[in-house]
Structures are given as structure tokens and as C-alpha cells.
Description:
GO terms for molecular function: D-aspartate oxidase activity; FAD binding. This protein is an alpha/beta fold.
Amino acid sequence: MAAPKVAVVGAGVIGLSTALCITETCPSCSVTVLSDQFSPNTTSDVAAGMLIPHTYPGTPIHVQKQWFKETFTFLFAISNSPEASEAGIHLVSGWQVFKNTPKEELPFWSDVVLGFRPMSEAELQKFPEHRFGQTFTTLKCDCPPYLLWLEKRLKAAGVQMHTRKVADLWDLHSEYNVVVNCAGIGAHQLVGDEKLFPVRGQVLKVHAPWVKNFIRDGDGLTYIYPGIHRVTLGGTREKGSWSLSPDPGTTKDIFDRCCSLEPALRGARDIEVKVGLRPSRRCVRLQREVLSRGGVKFPVVHNYGHGAGGFSVQRGTAKEAARLVGECIATLPGSSSRAKL
Ligand SMILES: Cc1cc2nc3c(=O)[nH]c(=O)nc-3n(C[C@H](O)[C@H](O)[C@H](O)COP(=O)(O)OP(=O)(O)OC[C@H]3O[C@@H](n4cnc5c(N)ncnc54)[C@H](O)[C@@H]3O)c2cc1C
Ligand SMILES: *[C@@H]1O[C@H](CO)[C@@H](O)[C@H](O)[C@H]1NC(C)=O
């Protein structure tokens, strides 16, 4: 059999990370990324890219923790390499504050991030309206740089990238042996998944280089996430809204909320407003499926539905998707299990 041909649909953080893992686990595969949008036009470009997991109610916690750990380890290595600035990966320390002590004082990811501990009384003085807080150091992926860096690595590994809107995964069966669905919220239409819904998020990206620490309101929606060049201010969580137009009232509300947490932001300049649709689901859809028409079979691997936490679990879910691609290849007619698993 010739080199197995794998198509990855989607060029957000999930599609690009998955394509990279496939080139690593299956060096003999010919990988193509097909997407209707590329950076800077994906949901992933809107995200803050902070590594703070979101909890998927439909996935066992130990699995989510493993995904996060693999992602943290992968990005931590990049942050410690000369690639860090081009990849837009950096460590950032800060505070998650609460009005009252939360039920779960230790989130499941507390021993994966660095230096997690409760805030001291002295630290809490910065937040007169909050009585409890946690401090830790985590990683942040700045986008677009991180997505562009992934694209560059993929091109260097021989991956083709084409702009193409896929109407039906079946349309790819005559050109590819396996397809990987990383369409994010696009999967709602692409595979008719009614369990997938948008959670609209509006953010501001501002110039405020004097803000160095992240701040996250553990009870609410407000966050301040400093990147290398811009600070991301958020946010909103509007379930079921498909609107991509920024709302001016929301912009003012986000800015005011962030300034009350961090008064130094009043001097922020060059405010850019962005909206993205989180591809939300009870659990990430990470599984194999075999499409079959007229006796012809076409294996698919799904990897979408990362909701509010795609950056935080990108590498863990991409590795699992690549493993599933290997399983699909092993079952192709004429295969001698050529994929190195
Ligand atoms: C405001 C906001 C802030 C966020 N902050 C964080 C954060 O700090 N940390 C974190 O971990 N997560 C965060 N997230 C969540 C994160 O952005 C998502 O989980 C992640 O971007 C999902 O990545 P994806 O690759 O699945 O989707 P996308 O980035 O949307 O990529 C999907 C790709 O599929 C393509 N596509 C779709 N349909 C088709 C089709 N039919 N044919 C061809 N191509 C198609 C699209 O063009 C796109 O390239 C945030 C999200 C928002 C909205
Ligand atoms: C992003 O969208 C803009 C506006 O539609 C378009 O001009 C640009 O070419 C797109 N960029 C990429 C990389 O597709």
C-alpha cells in the first residue's frame, strides 16, 4: 500500500495540533490540512490561550487531567527553548480570586500548574472585594503567533495546507484514506451534531504592557490575561448565541469589570474587540467512526467540542486522535500495520 493519506479538517489549535501529532506518530503518512479559515480567522485566534482547564462534565476527571498534563509538559518545553518567542508561549503568574471560599479548594489541575497555593492576607489586600484566592504560574499561548508557528512546523514536516470548505466528510473518501474532523463549532453543520452548541465569547485585546500578572474572578466571568504584546480582557459566556458581531455595551461592561479588578487598566490603549464561538459539548467528541456507503468504508476520527478549554487540552486530545488515526490505518485494506504506534 502507498503512504496512507490523511486529511485533517480544521486549522484552529485542535486541527493543527492533531496534524502535528499525526506526523509524529505516523511519519509515513501523507497529511493534508483542509480548512475554510486559517489563522488569524479562527475561533482559536480570539482565545486568550491560557492553560487553565475548563471541566467537561461528560469526561472522567483523570482523563481530563492527563490531557492537561500532556499539554502543559509539551508547551512548557517550548517555553524553555529558543523557539518560545516565535511560538508565542510564555509562563505567567497571577491570581484567581473569590468572594467566598469555593467548595473545591483544590481544582484537579492544581498539581500540574506550578506553585499553586492559597493567597496570603497580604496578597489579598490587592482585592478588597475578595476574601479568598489562589496563586499559581501557568502557560499562555499567544495567538496568532502560536498558530502560525504550528503551521510552520507542519509545512516543514511536509504537510499540505489548502483552503477548502468541506460540505460533507464523505466528499473526501476518494482522495484520502482517513479523515480527522477538527472543525470546532463548524462540526454542528458538518456532521449535524445537535449536542454541540456555541457559547459566544467577547473579549478585548488591549495595549497595557505594565500589567504583568493574570487575574481571574473565580466566581464570575471577568479575567485579565497578559500576553507577550497584548492583554486579553474578558469576558462573556452566551450559550446558544451564534452572533459574531461585537456588542458595544458588552465592550464597555467588560472594560469596567476588568478595571474594577485591576484599576491600572484604566490607562489601557488601542482597544480591539473580538468575538468567538466556543465549540461546547458535554464532552469532547474524541472517537472513531466508520462511514459506509454502497459497501465502501471510510474511517473518520472526530476531535471537536473543546468548549472553553481547547488550548488547555490541545496536545492530550491531539495525541489520542493521532492514536485513533493509527488504529484506522491498521484496518485499511492491504495494510501491514504500517503506522508506527
Ligand atoms: C473569548 C474566548 C476566550 C477563550 N479563551 C481560552 C483560554 O484562555 N484557554 C483555553 O484553553 N481556551 C480558550 N477558549 C476556547 C478555545 O478558543 C477553543 O476551545 C478552541 O479554540 C477550539 O479550537 P478548534 O480548533 O476546535 O476550533 P476553531 O479554532 O474554531 O477551528 C475550527 C477550524 O475548522 C474550520 N472549519 C469548520 N468547519 C469547516 C468545514 N465545514 N470545512 C472546512 N473547514 C472547517 C474552521 O475554519 C477553523 O479553521 C476561548 C474561547 C473564546 C471564544
Ligand atoms: C482572513 O479574513 C480576511 C477577511 O475576510 C481575508 O482578507 C484574509 O485573507 C483571511 N486570512 C487568511 C489567512 O485566510
